[in-house]
Every structure is written in structure tokens, then in C-alpha cells.
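Forum: Protein Structure Q&A
Topic: Joint prediction for protein chains with partners

I've read a bunch of threads here and the consensus seems to be that you should model interacting components together rather than docking separate models afterwards. I'd like to see that in practice. Below is the full input, 670 residues plus whatever partners are listed. Could one of the regulars post the assembled result?
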Amino acid sequence: MKDRKYWLYEVKIAIIAVVGAILYFMLTFTISSKGILKSNYNSISPELMPRIIGVVAVIVSVLMLIQAVSNYKKAEVSSDNKKSESILSFLDKDKIIIIVMLIIYLLLINIIGYIISTILLSLAILNYLDRNHIKRNIVFSVIFPIACFIIFNYLLQIWLPMGIFFN
Amino acid sequence: MSMFSNLLLGLQVALTPMNFLFALGGVILGQIVGILPGLGPIVTIAVLLPFTYSLDPIAAITAFSGIYYGSQFGGAISAILVNAPGTEAAIITAMEGYPMARRGMAGKALAAAAISSFVGGILGTLFMVLLSGPMTKMVVAFAAPEYLALMIFALVCISGFSENTTLLKCCFSICIGLAIGTIGLDGTTGTARLTFGNYNLYEGISFVILAIGMFALAEVLRNLKKNTGETNATKNRIEFDSGIVKLSMKELLYILPTQIRSSISGFFIGVLPGVGSTTSTPLAYLTEKKIYPKGEWGKGELRGVAAGESSNNSCAMGALVPLLTMGIPGSGTTAIMLSAFMILGIQPGPLLFQNNPEMVWGLIASFFIGTCILLVINLPLVKYCAKLVQIPNDILFISVLLLAIVGSYSVSQRIFDVWLIVLFGIIGLFFAKAKLPLTPCLVALLLGELIETNLARSIVICNHNIFEFFKRPIVAVFILLAVLVIVGPIIYRNFIKKKPEKN
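Posted by a regular:
Agreed with the consensus. Here's the joint model:
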């Protein structure tokens, strides 16, 4: 059965939801319809819809919190001493490393261009995951980005960033 | 008679070499992504959308539809051969098909799956032809208030019928989708909303970006792991001789009633917004189990494979009815189809049937042709398709990652969107962990703008009087249905189901 640890995690999620909903609701007050003639929008002002969504979101998230807390109180205390899951448990080491690689890639792409940065990204990820097939990794990492570049630039006329080396 | 001439017109359009080639390419690609676990039509269409900007809209839509229903076909292959359903809808097929394959009857299971998918696809398309005429006639009478009520009904259905999660979480997911939709310049007045002064956000967050991030990138991050030896695909693999992918006449007749029943129930479940093949396939399976209690259920019953596949394919066709006739998506996959329509400059709805009959009927005719192509591909070539399961995971998902990067970049040709997909990818992982469903968020983002414009028009039409709104008969029916969808299950759970316990 679901024990207290499970519901504690649900409580944490509900708290995040409540905070997020309240934050969004407060942000809707930054929208101002000042300076717009009433006749220009006639029936619905720009902040109406966000505010309705905000109110509904706050109500729904508070209900989520109430539900999670009441289930937590009803649930049995868990037998083992492990801690409840952390809210960041959806990110493990592999995911964090790949996300960091992606961020570095995005910082570099405008400087060194699409082709070089993408070849580097693909090589880095593939070699991080599997060191036993280096040849295969290199072949894939060179051919795939170049093929993408040719298809996009010449067939679809979508210009990918060239970087400083090819300008 | 007019329906017949419409279909003839459609066939003329669908059989032009260009459109035929795109249908062929679409169904083959759909078949492939259906086979590969983790890749589905949402990811594929989202990533491929930018490739179609310069194409003829009819050809592009034909190809996307091919991907859509082709993937329903392909899911069965990996379900039967490696017990790894390529799509959620193929879980039932795996339950009966994999045991059959273990007993050396993989060929029969694959043949039954292909033929049942074919029957489901063809019957589903036929029902679509029959239903879309009356539907468009009804929808033509809709004004803004009716559309608004319909959209509210659709959103309520999506949260009310969702499985494996709570109603509240679905509602919250819808709120997130609607909230993301409010970012950017407001449609009627041009006021900047929640852009924090960042000009990149003025256009708002594109639906395609959200879909690529939350579905494709999250899936990539989930699947790119360090090699840990054997994967499911290699462990459970079953060798089979491709010469025997066929069924005898007797077996064909044995599964025919099942196919027809499952196709009918699948189609009508598909038409309802928010309910899809994850509901229709178990329903068809359980129905057949009740009708034939003597079958070898769970150990490899041919009828089980037939029920799952017919229902699943027919359901996919059913889901296209509200999309084509009303422009309302009822699932994540039809939502991405709708955004493909919109990007290509087509607005689905009753007017499309009136003004562009060659497009609509060409599309529908292409479903018939595509389904036949799929049957032809599946029976003799399934051996080669099955090889796809052997593609190494890391190569497969890094390809998806690289395509997602160029795909999101080309939406508006800026790196900002690629940053956004990384962000949404992380959010998508969190959603999965927190059991927040993704589909409602996606559909809500797409419907958000439509809801706002229709709300604005409704307020004018109803003279700022909320009672005027509810007085309209169609509106009242939709709102009543929506209330029933929410309240019905609660009443059932708390009052009707509890009675036997007291006795």
C-alpha cells in the first residue's frame, strides 16, 4: 500500500503547485490595459483570461494540497527508515551531465557555428554513454550533423548558424 | 450519392503521384516509429513539422496522417516479437501476441495483427465518411458560445477520462497549458502579457516547441543512459521464420466477428474527446473475453490480438472526426495534427468541408490507400521491420535529439527556442515523475487562444449576460455533459459502488 513517504512526496508536489499558481496569479497584475481604449477590446480585457486561469489554478492546487495532506494523515507510517523522495529525484547523474552538455552547446553554437558544435555535442554524448564503439560514434557524429546542415540550408532554405569560421 | 462522388473526388486527389508518394512515405515512417519504443507519432510529427513548411499542404497533411495511423500498425510488431509495445495502445497486443510468439506462432500473431489493423483502419475510415457529413451539418450552426462550450466540454473530458492519475492533477496540467498560452502579445489588443520585457516571448510560446520539449526531449533524456548490458529488446527477442506470416481461411473467419465488434466500439470511443486507445483496447479485449470465455486468454489467444489491433486502429480514425469536422483535438496526437494543419494554413472545421472538399476528401481517400499500403508492407516485409528493434538505443535517441534541435530552431530561426526545448524537456521529466499528465497541458495550450477569442465573441453575442449563454440549447447540453463527466464518477464511487459493502 501507499505509505506516508509516498504521500509526503505528493504533499511536496502540491506545495510547489500552490506556490506556482499564486506566483502566476500575482504576475497577472503586471499586465496592464492602461492606455488601451475600452472600445478597442469591447468585451474582454487582456488581463481577464490570465486572471481567470490564475484563480482556477490556485483553487485546484489548494485542493491538491488538501487531498495530499489528508491522505498523508490517513496513511500508515512506513516501516523502513528511508527518507521520502527528494523533489529533484527526477534528475539523475546521466541526465544532469547531458543537460550540462546541451547548455554548453547552446552557448557555443552562435560562436563556432552549427556544424562544429553539433559534431562536438554528438561525440561528447555518445562517448560519454558508450566508449566501446568509438569508430561508430565518430562516423555518426560527423555524417548526421553535416547531412542535417545540407538538407536545411540548401533544400529547405532554413539558415543554421554559421559561426565565425565560415563567414 | 454525394458521399460517393465526394470519395471519387478524393481518390482523384489522393492518387496523384506526388500525394501517393507522400502517403507512402508517411505510412512507412509511421510504421517505423511505431515499432521503436519511446518514439511515437507526437515526437515524430513535432520534429518533422519544420521540414514541411515549403511543401504543398495536401501532400504534407497526407504524410502526417500516414505517420499518425501508420504508427498504430507498427506498435504491434515490437509488442509481439520483443514484448515491448512500441505504443501504449499495443499493450493488449503484447499480452496475447507475445505468448503466441513464445509458442512459435509469431507469424500467425503478426498476420492477425496486420489484418486486424487493416480491418480496423478501413472500418474506422468508413465510419468517418458516414459520420462527418451529419457532423459538419450540425457544426455549421455553431456560433462562438457553442464553440466555447464545446471546448470546455473537450477539456473536461480530457481530465475526466484520464487514467493513472487524479482528476485534480489533470486540471492543474490544463491550467499550466492555459497559463503558458497567455504568454506573449494578446490577440485582440496587442498588449504584452507576461513577457518580462523579453522580445523573444512576444510571439508567445509555440505549441511545436512545447511538444518537442516535453515529449521528444524528455523522452531523449529518459532514454540516453550509460550502457548497462542487455536491453529488453535483445533479451526477449524471438526469432521467427518470415515465410509463415499468414492466416488460414478458418482463422480469418474465427477473428472476423471480433474485428468488427472491436472496430465499432473503438471508433466511437475515439470520437469522444479525451478518451483514446488506452481505454478502447482494454474494453474491446474484456468484451471479447466475456463473449468467448473458453478461449486461451493470456496464453496467446488470436482473438485478443485481433481485438486490440482493430480497436486501436479504428479508434485512431475516430479521433480524427472531431479534429476534421470541428477543429477540436481530443488527444495529444490529434493536437499535434491540428497544429500541423494550422502551420500549413488549413483551419479544420465545417468550412473546410464546404470550401476545400478536394482537400478533405483527398485526405480521407488517402486513409483508405494508406491502410492498404500498410497491409501490403506488413504481410511480406515484416521480417525487415522487425530488425529495427535492434538499432542501438543511444544512436536512435541522439538522432532524435539532433533533429529536435534543428526542428525547434527552424520554427522561428532562433536559438532561443532551442533553450526553451531544453527547459521544457526538464519540465517534462518532472511532470512524469510527479504523475502530472502531459497531454492535457498540450491540448490546453492549443485551445487556450481559441477559448479566449470565443469567450470575447460570446460575451458580445450574449450581451454581457451569463444567463443568455446558458439559455442556448446546444451550450446547455455541452455544459450539462461536462458536469456529468466530472460528477458522474464521483457519485458512482461514493454512492452506488458502496452499497454492496453495507449489505
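Helices of chain A lie at 4-27, 38-41, 48-74, 93-112, 114-129, 134-155.
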